[in-house]
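Allow me, if you will, to draw on your knowledge of protein folds for a short while. I have a record of one protein: its chain in single-letter code and its fold written as discrete structure tokens. Kindly check, if you would, that the fold set down in the tokens agrees with what the sequence suggests. Thank you for your consideration; the sequence and its tokens are set out here:
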Amino acid sequence: MDIKQVQELIRFVAKSGVNEVSIEEKDFKITIKTNQQPTYVTAAPQAPVAVAQPVPAAPVAPVISAADAKAIAAAEDMANYVTVKSPMIGTFYRSAGPDKTYFVNVGDEVKAGQVVCIIEAMKLFNEIESEVTGRIVKILVDNSSPVEYDQPLFLVEPA
């Protein structure tokens, strides 16, 4: 099993909501665990219950502070972007070496499948590819910084 297959398996496990997956073959064994809480669904028929209706109060305009307004505006702006996330835990690098140019910068156009960074995990350097075609709007991680699984790395404005 190569690193791309492992990355795809990690993505699948994260999206599926499964808490743990183990695969064992003759030459290797891999176990992937997530920190998601198990979901339990219980359904039971209930008898109708009479509820007293509250008396409607006079409408009051909500008060929003300037900081809250900025946060709401930022959240609405972020909804238009696609987030490229880390598929693993490791160290984030923007280039292939200290004397090499960065893979991408803010404002650069990227294509799906284009390498945008490297994440080093256990002395293995994994090229991380963009999942979307668009323009890099923001780089969310500093070079040579540790990253967690599923941590946002880049914001991309889709083309």
Notes: The longest helix spans residues 3-16. Strands lie at 20-24, 29-33, 82-85, 90-93, 109-110, 115-121, 124-129, 134-139, 145-147, 152-158.
